[in-house]
Amino acid sequence: MRLAGWTLRARLIAGLLVLFTLASVGVGVVTTIAFRDFQIRQLDQQLFGAAQALSANIEQFETHNSASGCPRSAARDEGPPLTQGQTPGTYAARFQAGQLSFSCEVHDNKGEITLANVPLSSADLAALASIPVHGPGNRQAYSRYLSGLGDYRLTVSRGPDNDVHVAGLPLSGVQASVRQLELIEVIVFGAALLVMGLAGTGWIRLSLRPLGRITATAAEVAELPLESGEVTLPHRVPDADPRTEVGKLGKVFNQMLGHVESSLATRQASEARLRQFIADASHELRTPLAGIRGYTELALRATADFDPEIRRALRRIDSESGRMSRLVDDLLLLARLDAGRPLAHEPVDLTRLAIDVTNDARVAGPQHRWVLDLPTEPVVVTGDLHRLHQVLANLLTNARTHTPLGTTVTVRLIPARAGENGGGAELSVSDDGPGIPVTLQASVWERFARGDGARSRQAGGTGGTGGTGLGLAIVQAVITAHHGRVSLASRPGQTTFRIWLPADGSAESAGDGHAHV
Question: Are strands 150-158 and 142-146 parallel, antiparallel or unpaired?
Fold first, then answer.
């Protein structure tokens, strides 16, 4: 629809103007028709009077007839009987035995009243013949067009000697009056429409001002980060008359904001309790897990003569307790990052970091092909060396664990161009493995995300930390804590994780940064 993109204000103004225009047109049409009918009735009264006088004098016309068919010119007080008392423009005609006897018009020639012959065409004769003939006491008027005169109001009556008398008055006066009325109506209604448009625009703008305040408040609330963390909604719609529709809307909107704020506060409290529980549980689990690992190592050293099955069981206990210790450490790290614990803020050489972590991955996965693509100059950012080491290690472990043997894994470091977004760098890990299914790509950053797609070579998930599903969640949490961003692009034969880190690890320098593609 054409009005689909219009604002409510524009629709109301347009609707008001359209309704006023329709009403004006309706009033104009009705008044014009009524005025025209009134003018015609007045003209008909004059016509009937003129016809009566013409019928009384028309029998004397022959004594004043001239060669032209009409009597000669004469002054008003001396003229032929046919012109006496008649206004200029009056038309008279007579038919005898069906034949036209004369056809004349009363003409004012500089104060001198004359009769002018009016020739009639066949169409004019047919028009006159179509008018019913009435008696003198029952006259009726009809509108016809005569080629020599124009639009006329005509009446036809039968004379005493069975001849037919035609009398007529011009409609030009009525038509001029109607046109003048139409012009006046156009001017008046046009001015009224202009005034109505200006006044209506101001009134509608004033009436919709409370609705504009509601929209502004909603826009302010929409810009608030509501997805996580402590959220307060101090914005409220100013009070309005609750008896009005806008007042009711504002009251309901304020109630909704109150419910949303209460729900967000409840969610935040629940998340805080959950984070505290995870932190406390993880912290408490570290001590018994360390004891289990210690006693297991001690048992392995003291059981040289034990049965091989017992030694295998002890080694499994040591392996699983180590895996559980890493899981506890990961949970504790995520809890601290969620709580907003500050990270170290020190210079980190990403070039050296990429070399060290890639060498470690090459040792852990010698059957993969590891490629480094580094700039000639060192790339230094400000951040936490240990956590950034963990991020890159998780990505490389993820690539090694979930791609077939022989896959090429490329670590690429691209520094920001001089002056671009305050500096920074992009660090990416790419592989030519089978890729991550589209259905899993949106959930790889979730905690304990598990994947069984084409990338899984072993039982496990997309997390990359022993199949716990926390590796990529830690990657995202650490990079977010550095005010950077991480993204994934994957298709069969090409999977790339990109990380953008600002130069000084601040939110300002990362605000407009973007990863190179």
Answer: antiparallel
Confidence band of 81 (pLDDT split at 50, 70, 90): low
Give how far Cα 155 sits from Cα of 103, 125, 150, 391, Å: 14, 14, 16, 107
| Nearest CA-CA partner of 27 in 188, 212, 201, 199 | 188
Q: Going by DSSP bridges, is the β-strand pair 408-415/91-96 parallel, antiparallel, or unpaired? A: unpaired
CB burial of 100-121 (b: ≥16 within 10 Å; e: otherwise) equals bbbbbbbbeeeeebbbeebebe
Can you give the pLDDT at residue 412? 92
Q: Chain-wide mean pLDDT for the chain?
A: 78
Contact 339, 289 (CB under 8 A): no
The answer to whether the beta carbons of residues 469 and 440 sit under 8 Å apart is no
Q: Is the pLDDT of residue 29 over 90?
A: yes
Helices (H), 303-384: 308-338, 350-364
Closest CA to 496 of 444, 423, 439, 421: 444
Both tokens of 445, joined, read 């950053």
Count, in order, helices (H) and strands (E) of the chain. 11, 13
| Rounded Cα gap, residues 76 and 85, in angstroms | 8
Concatenated DSSP letters for 382-394?
A: EE-HHHHHHHHHH
The yes-or-no verdict on residue 68 having pLDDT over 50 is no
Q: How confident is the model at residue 39 (pLDDT cuts 50, 70, 90)?
A: very high
Secondary structure class of 364 (helix, strand, coil): helix
* pTM of the entire predicted model: 0.50
Compute CA distances 294 → 1, 113, 297, whole Å: 76, 140, 5
Determine the Cα–Cα distance for residues 341 and 344; give it in Å rounded to an integer.
10
- The beta strands (E) that lie in 222-263 are given as none
Give the H/E segment covering residue 511.
Answer: none
Long-range contacts formed by 276-284: CB under 8 A, 24+ apart: 276/335, 278/331, 278/332, 278/334, 278/335, 279/332, 279/335, 279/336, 279/339, 281/331, 282/328, 282/329, 282/331, 282/332, 282/335, 283/332
d(CA 279, CA 266): 20
Kindly state the average pLDDT of the residues 163-190.
Answer: 91
The percent of the chain in helix, strand and coil, each rounded to the nearest 5, is 50, 15, 30
